[in-house]
Amino acid sequence: MQTVQFSGMIEQSFTIHEFTLDKKAEWLEIQIEFHIKKWQHVFLWDPNDRLRWQYVNVHAPKTIILHSDDKLSDYSTLPGELPQGTWKLEVLVEPDHLPVQHQINLKAGVGSYSPINEWTNDAKQYWADVDGKAPMQANLFSMEQVKRKEAAWYRGDFHTHTVLTDGKMTVQQGMMQAKKQNLDFFVATDHNLLPTMWVEDEDVLVIPGIEITSSKGHFNALGLTSWVDWRPTHHDGGMESEQGMNRVISEVRDHGALFSVNHPMLTPYAWLFMDTKLSDLDSFEVWNDPTFPDNRKATEEALVLWNELWNDGYCVCGIGGSDSHMLPTESYVQGGPPSLIGDPATYVYSPELSAKAILQSVKERKVYVTRGPVIEQVVEINNEQFLIGSDVSAIIDEEQEVTVHFKVTIQGMSAGTLYWIENGEIVEQQSIDGSSEYESSTQWKTGEFVWRRVEIRDEKGELMAFTNPVFSGQKAPSIEKWGELLTKAGLA
Using CA atoms, how far apart are residues 480 and 492, in angstroms rounded to an integer? Predict the structure, then answer.
């Protein structure tokens, strides 16, 4: 057995420890301790420049096993052969959190190793191994794998967390809660950590992702299967500089993932990168955890921003995210409602339940978000029917002026108000009185850019659901960057 220890006071934001594996090893045990929990990041690199372990020091376990056998390797590790040679441990600490005392103990050996984390024995789906592209790739995850084959409105959540970073639920508890909430899918988006495996479930689809978490804003990379270097130590400043963040966003999209800004107006986590290109936005988290006290104001401002995006010609999909960090028995307010995965729920109309199909439907805006009401919306034009999010330009262009008939069916809500919002303005409102069907008609003309969506609010005016717009035409944008959007929306 080989053993190595590193300890002492870290005085700099970036520290590298090197050690050598000079004998055959089948497993590597890492015990890590910081005297304070301050979001320290740790990376383990092997001699082939593969990222073998990612760690965020908040709620993550203090002992980790990297094993050549994937069934014995812990979450957040890249299992597989442990090559002999020089390995590197990188420690990232935010400048404001220096200095910090730490100790890292390493043991490497062969033969049997008893799992010490309760979830090591979870039945897992394995997404990555050392045969993937360096530095880390979820090469075993199939975007095409189908959980269900029928076209349907699938209920999901695009923003979730676990104890692997700062959430309080284990991966297994998160899955159990997702099933209790009747979710068909969710995206695993722990902070700055690309998932390499997850707990297996025959019904619930889990899509890999990551929440890139900087001091100037957070975004989700939905469907990301390749590690992107977000580190501030990158020569362009990584996620802490405008140039670096633009590169990170570009690489995320190049890898086929969706770029989605999270809680854009929620202080102190609001998006502050003023040079972000609006054309890069694939989706937009309009509604973040409704139980978090500051999110009522932040969500209303996000709706204003989203309206402004659409009015300027950016047909960006609006989604929701529970941003679930808490145990289901906990609340942000004493005696208040619990913060739960799937609240709000984001429904996606998809031809099947697969990662590829779900993400493609998000691109096509076939989405509505809700805290309870179940919505069915049909748009009828000249006896043809269209779904939420549809571009109806082709049929509008066939005639000079067309009647567009909207029909919305609402289940699970007996009182409140339905608002018809066209080009950012309320053009009609109807009382929800217990009946299930509500209708509205309008005239759209060839060549004009126009869009309409629905908001549903309760008797106190609290948001309960919204749909993505149906629209016709195109508009050349007048603004290009995030800072311009804030200014135009009056939120700078």
Answer: 15
